[in-house]
Amino acid sequence: MGIDQVDNYLDAHRAQFEEELKALIRIPSVSAQPTHSDDVRKAAEFVRDNLRSIGVPADLIETPGHPIVYGERLDAPGKPTVLIYGHYDVQPPEPLEPWLSPPFEPTIREGNLFARGATDDKGQMFTHLKAVEAWLKTVGQLPVNVKFLIEGEEEVGGANLENYVSLNKAKLACDVAVISDTSQFAPGIPAITYGLRGLAYFELLVEGANIDLHSGTYGGAVANPLNALCQMIASLKDGDGRIQIAGFYDDVRPLEDWERQAWAKLPFDEAMYQKGLGVIGLFGEKGFSTLERSWARPTCDVHGLWGGYSGPGPKTVLPRKAGAKLSFRLVPNQDPKRVAELLKAHLKAVCPPGVTYELIEQHGAPAALVEVDTPAARAASKAIEASFGTPPVFMRGGGSIPVVGLIKTQLGVDTLLLGWGQEDDNLHGPNEKFCLADFHLGIKASAHLLAELAR
Amino acid sequence: MGIDQVDNYLDAHRAQFEEELKALIRIPSVSAQPTHSDDVRKAAEFVRDNLRSIGVPADLIETPGHPIVYGERLDAPGKPTVLIYGHYDVQPPEPLEPWLSPPFEPTIREGNLFARGATDDKGQMFTHLKAVEAWLKTVGQLPVNVKFLIEGEEEVGGANLENYVSLNKAKLACDVAVISDTSQFAPGIPAITYGLRGLAYFELLVEGANIDLHSGTYGGAVANPLNALCQMIASLKDGDGRIQIAGFYDDVRPLEDWERQAWAKLPFDEAMYQKGLGVIGLFGEKGFSTLERSWARPTCDVHGLWGGYSGPGPKTVLPRKAGAKLSFRLVPNQDPKRVAELLKAHLKAVCPPGVTYELIEQHGAPAALVEVDTPAARAASKAIEASFGTPPVFMRGGGSIPVVGLIKTQLGVDTLLLGWGQEDDNLHGPNEKFCLADFHLGIKASAHLLAELAR
Q: Residue ranges per domain, chain A?
């Protein structure tokens, strides 16, 4: 009864697992910030060394950017092969001011581990290393073949992983992929995520004169890049939240009836949701519920605005330049390249006179949708029930994990999205957290999954 | 023939005047920066001492902020009294990097004196002291009564001058005020400015959730403060540059036919103007020329935008808060308080669902418009022609000099705005300059003005 030994090992090593995770989190592996490139490498080495220490031969794969960690343990001939994907890089911690404890000093408050990367994705990714450790330190071998693919450029959308996967299809060949980089539906309601949104991310720069101008002397006679930027951005949506780019919805695959019905039955408390966010009301596209809006409808959101003077008091400058970061969450079957083309045509049409603009494409990935009625999904369901004490619900997620599409197109397999996090974990925001109870439940579910997939 | 002696004195003392101006400019009297408060006082003392040395009894008037310099020479009974206003404080020199010579080390290049305060307003204000000096050192008395009111808080918009003027109406009683803090129409085309725009300046803050959110998890289901801010700002103007706030134009006094005709005849080279600014085209309200747009039409300009992420690479944050600085240049007869009320009503109507906002009023001043066909204006015109060799054109300016309104309401007199500067003097910017030829022409014109006003 290998699984009992495994469970006992997990119970006995909770403190060790937490300390190891904290050590990984303390490395500020912010992939977007060049000043942290040494730290990113240190995090990769940490993951590689941890894999080696638990009995999985592993190496760093160099790329033009941050390294990929690859490890494999293939000692279950005739059994399925599982590819476990995760990422060791994290989002920038800024703004720093709202953090209650330093972003790279993991701090436990009320059973939650607070730190950048706690849930996204160091904590969730690490559950699979610890599950494998428990098998190898007790039974001595794994019930299935396991390949670990842990990258360092997930948060910057680099092309290096894509290149690596497409050039190493045989090496990475597998029967199913597993990723823990999503959330449960709610505390105590674990979930398997069968769909994700895609992303098309842009920077938009608007320029006017060749120097900053005085608004008294020139105001009214020359276009103002800040006003122009606002005008261009405002043109992207109507007052009902519907995107106004011609052709934008052409490829949107409608929700299936069974999905809308199933989601309507999920225990979603809209009042609590609103209260938790502290907003005065919810707002989104007409004709869709909150879950539908956040899981299965495309968006257009601005992520940053800059230009001119933001210090104290009045300054009457007409700045020469203004900028914005904005993105579209995409749904099946939208193509990020086509969305970029449609956006370009739209901006060309709406750009006001007197300014020029530049649109920089920063990231693009299609949405993902996988089958829900498969042997692997049933195995995952059983494993989750064994750990959490309740079977998972099937949901979609609003975020993007581009590697799901990559794995499908390059390796031909679907991905099990097994999220151990919670919706309010503040991934990408200040005070990111991961519930330590979920961390350990995730490890146990992962350990059971290896057994279930072997059947 | 007193005026000939005066002219001869001016010719003979050019070098001395320039050295004195340089000494005044070397005092970094930046009124906005507390670290320079001693320097601000030194500049006040310099002006007081210079007035005393030329024969005008003068003192410092203490205020809760920086002192006012007041001096008077009332030895022309039965003749008009002229109030000369100016300011000895300067804008901060930052950003320092673009300066070709240190901002407080006056440096002559190609006949221009480069330094912070060279034109705004030390150099222009100083012309009137040197004109009075010439009269007193030659004729021994002034042809009219002269009162000097030189403040140290013009660049910070303090209330201390307003308090002082309103409490000392009898002391400051005069027949006309003179201010040199504007520009000529162009090199070789001196001007009398008979109108200025007012200003209503605001900060607008928009808030959504109580924390930054992940756009994957929440995008589409909650309002985004950045999108909302852009939407609110874009709603302020239509595509033709016309302000969309209900009632905004109600009080706008239309341009007179004679003004439009006169301005159309001014030697304004739109192609050169556009080229100098480096814009791809000019843009403003339809139905108005560039001069009309910048002198006599109200504006709505954004001066700063902030919120979210502006670092390198993509970050998919829905920030909790966004902000903007924006202002309206006002024209006669708009009231800044009424504009603030109209703006409030507009924002209330257009604020999208799901966000809240706060509007902070940061500054307000009405426009100014003075009569052009008055004895004083005719006197100024003759004085300028005597110095520059050509009569001035009558123009308006796009900026704001709130003291013009103060003098009108408190002392009941119009102001002669006699600008010796040029449009490209970079006041408030790096490499501020003042043409030394204009400095001496301004002194001579001021000296002749005293004679003309006595007639």
A: 2-196+367-454, 198-252+298-365
pLDDT digits (tens, 9 = 90+) for A86-128: 999 999 999 899 999 999 999 999 999 999 999 999 999 999 9
Q: Which two tokens stand for residue A55?
A: 């009995």
Class of domain A2-196+367-454: alpha beta
Radius of gyration of chain A (CA): 23
- Tell me the CATH class for B198-252+298-365: alpha beta
Taking the C-alpha atoms of residue B353 and residue B320, their distance in angstroms, rounded to an integer, is: 15
**Please, where are the H alpha helices in A90-139?**
122-138
Whether A241 and A249 have beta carbons less than 8 Å apart is answered as no
Q: List chain B residues with CB under 8 Å of A248.
A: none
CA distances from A164 to A61, A62, A64, A168, A178 (A): 9, 10, 11, 6, 18
Alpha carbons B13 and B16: distance in angstroms, whole number = 5
Residue of B209, B305, B427 lying closest to A305 (CB–CB) = B305
CA-based nearest distance A153→chain B, Å? 11
Q: What is the pLDDT of residues A150-177, one digit of tens each?
A: 999 998 877 899 999 999 999 999 999 9
Name which of B277, B330, B348, B363 to mutate to probe chain A: the one with the most chain A Cβ atoms within 10 A of its Cβ. B277
A279 touches chain B (CB under 8 A): yes
- Measure the N-to-C terminal CA separation of chain B; round to a whole number of Å: 14
pTM, full prediction: 0.88
**Terminal-to-terminal C-alpha distance of chain A:** 14
Nearest by CB to A429, which of B201, B213, B324?
A: B213
Going from the C-alpha of A204 to that of each of A235, A327, B447, the distances in angstroms are 14, 10, 55
Q: Do A322 and A205 contact (CB within 8 A), yes or no? A: yes
Cα separation values, A18 from A89, A254, A420, B129, Å: 19, 43, 15, 77
ipTM, two decimals, is 0.90
Query: Which of A282, A325, A427 is opposite residue B354, by nearest beta carbon?
Result: A282
Taking 80 as the threshold, does the pLDDT of residue B157 lie above it?
no
How many angstroms separate the CA atoms of B212 and B316, rounded? Answer: 10
Residues of chain B in contact with residue A310, where contact means CB-CB under 8 angstroms, are 304-306, 323, 325
Model confidence pLDDT, tens digit, residues A217-250: 999 999 999 999 999 999 999 998 999 999 999 9
Per-residue DSSP letter, A411:
I
Three-state DSSP state, B203: strand
Task: For residue A96, give the amino acid letter.
Answer: L
CA distance B297 to chain A (A): 7
